[in-house]
Amino acid sequence: MAQESDTPDSSAAAPNSGPTSDSSSDSRAVSTPRLERIRAWIRRYGRHYLDDPNVTSVGVGYKEKDGSRTDQLSLQFTVRTKAAGAQLEQMDTTAIPETLEIDSDPVVTDVVERAFVPAYRVIPEAERSERKTRRDPLEPGVSISHPDVSAGTLGVIVHDRTTGRPAVLSNWHVLHGPTGTIGDPALQPGSHDDNSGDPRNEFGRLLRSHLGAAGDAALASIESRRVDPAIMGLAVVPEEIADPDLGDRVVKSGRTTGVSHGVVSRIETIVSLDYGEGVGETSIGGFEIEPDERRDNEDDPAGTGMLSDGGDSGAVWMLKAGNGHTSRVMAGLHFAGADSLSGDERAIACLASSVRGVLDFSLDGSVAQETAAEAAVGSGFDEDFLAVPVAVPTFASTASQADEELGADDAVEVDGSTVVPYTHFSLTMSRARRFARWVAWNVDGDDMRRLSRDGIDFRLDERLPADVQAGEDLYATNDLDRGHIARRADLLWGPRAEAERANEDSFHFTNIVPQMNTFNQAGRSGVWGELEDALFDAVDVASLRISVVAGPVFKAADREYRGFRIPREFFKVVYYVVDDELRAAAFVLTQDLDDLEIVDGLKDFSTYQVTLAELTEKTGLEFAEAVEAEVGAEARAEARAGAGSPRRVGSASDIRW
User: Fold this and answer.
1) Residue 226: alpha-carbon gap to chain centroid
2) Taking the mean position of all CA atoms in its chain, how far away is CA 26?
3) Are 223 and 205 in contact, with CB atoms under 8 Å apart?
4) For labeling, which of 358, 572, 616, 651 is most exposed (least CB within 10 Å)?
5) Of 304, 285, 316, 347, whose CA–CA distance to 117 is shortest?
6) Other C-beta atoms within 10 Å of 245: how many?
7) What is the SS3 assignment for 79?
8) What's the rounded Cα separation, in Å, for the pair 381 and 422?
9) 143's torsion region: left (phi>0), alpha (psi -120 to 50) or beta?
10) What single-letter DSSP state applies at residue 363?
11) Which range in 240-254, 465-479, 518-532 is most confidently predicted, on average pLDDT?
């Protein structure tokens, strides 16, 4: 392709563009409104030029003449091969006119021979560096990758606005790639730098990704490492995001080239990249950088002399301040580079502002936590909280031990659903019994908070009719305790505002069941109250996360008191993941309420481990299937030996996980 005055055909030209006169405009006369019109034109029509197989990008830059840059602003196109005349037809490409008219304003064009490739093709290296070894804490500027990708760069530590937690930002083609899916492992160092399969290299999971006009970017969770947010070699922590302008000086820290200094040479750039089989050519928006080895201060980090090389993908380009020092303002995310025999090196980055919009992160941890807390309040039990989904209970078609009046029609609806959400937990209420049929909650054992219960009163849920809830009238002037079904301590995790709301939500009467006070106190200090903690102590639970389902066991023979039938038994199912396998342990706790009328204390209570099938028989509820310990077979063996069934649990050491 060559720059000629003949008109491009419709396959290469924008709908409202065409040849103009030979007039041109000097950049010194360009006004800001004019530049904005050019930006708008590229956003709307630039992608049409990328349909031409020879065109690799389009953007705003300074026109080049005889290998040198002029001060004339231009619409700059890069092509794989620069050609003229008959060569154009042989290459199945068309010419770019010398000027393009934008809102009746002729804008000069420029054509430069340059092609871009994703910056992750890694050449084996003999030497090792601190950037290519396992790092704890994780630092921006080091090697990371998806298991099926060679290596890229950890760009920056950001904060996921969905959870409020720290996360890693890099490229789609570094953390996702053509074979990846959400939830895949994220490795540090990348697989090229350590292909041993060491499980310690996995630091988190792919959360979200984007490949398209807004950028080449992905977020990964941080689950097994500490973090140091300062960029290696630059010693700054990004705090703000801004779009760059032509001539802005920038610097990055990449896995392969280390510290690189550059100058923004084109803006509003759209580049077409071939991402290989299964993905193909994709158009990405961003800006272009050329080398800049100027140093204003001896304190500034020295560059390596290279702008980009394989493995630098994902590094962040930081803007420099007026004195040449690296600022705390992030401009973009490096994703491609171009080189030539003449040494005419260039790099391409997507805009940090665009990437932030599609991946929903913040550089400010407090802002992300507030956003996450607002989203989490009232969102209820998360069925996808673990690596393997856990569904809430449903009503069984048959259950010989369950009270026959407690079928699906007994469930209370709120806003058209029988599942009532709170912060970190959900439940279904029984209309007949006025207690919860079940409560399901999530526990993040690695993010717990200690919060006081002072000043929080038990209260009815205003979303439900008062006559389907057991309130203060049941508990006044007797020895019945208001017993939490979902443990208050289990719910106090996440950003502080979120944990505080969960603390308050736990005191709704919908999460409360009556228990003799001696029973409730003993249950808290006994094995029943320690089931979740016992699991963490005994099993290597993935990410210290569990999901729990619990509630009363309703029976027709339950004792009536003050118009309520008081449950004698309670159940609990603890779900957890080990080696990507969902497991479950089910338990029943019984209490004797024969002395409720004279309120002289508790006769007996015991914890038993049962199977999910046995629990369905007792409760009339179907539970999410999971791998269980062989408690059923063992219990039957004990029964045949006269030891009784099911299996009694006297201490945490008796539990089969």
Assistant:
1) 17
2) 47
3) yes
4) 651
5) 347
6) 13
7) strand
8) 8
9) beta
10) S
11) 240-254
Summarize pLDDT for 256-306 with one digit per residue, the tens.
999 999 999 999 999 999 998 889 999 999 999 999 877 666 666 776 678
Calpha distance 595→602 (Å, rounded) = 7
Residue partners of 4: CB distance under 8 A and separation at least 6: 84, 95, 96, 97, 98
Distance CA 109, CA 96 (A): 8
Burial classification of residue 644, based on how many CB atoms lie within 10 Å of its CB (0-12 exposed, 13-18 middle, 19 or more buried): exposed
Residue 325 tokens read as: 């020092």
Amino acid at 577: V
Q: How far apart are CA 377 and CA 41, in angstroms?
A: 43
Helix (H) or strand (E) holding 303: none
The length of the chain, given as a count of residues? 657
- Looking up tokens 């034109």 gives 41
Contacts of 110 (CB under 8 A, 6+ apart): 3, 61, 63, 64, 74, 75, 76, 77
DSSP letter, residue 296 = S
**DSSP state letter for 216:** E
How many other CB atoms are there within 10 angstroms of residue 443's CB atom? 28
d(CA 100, CA 560): 87
Query: What is the DSSP secondary structure assignment for residue 113, as one 8-state letter?
Result: E
Can you give the pLDDT at residue 639? Answer: 41
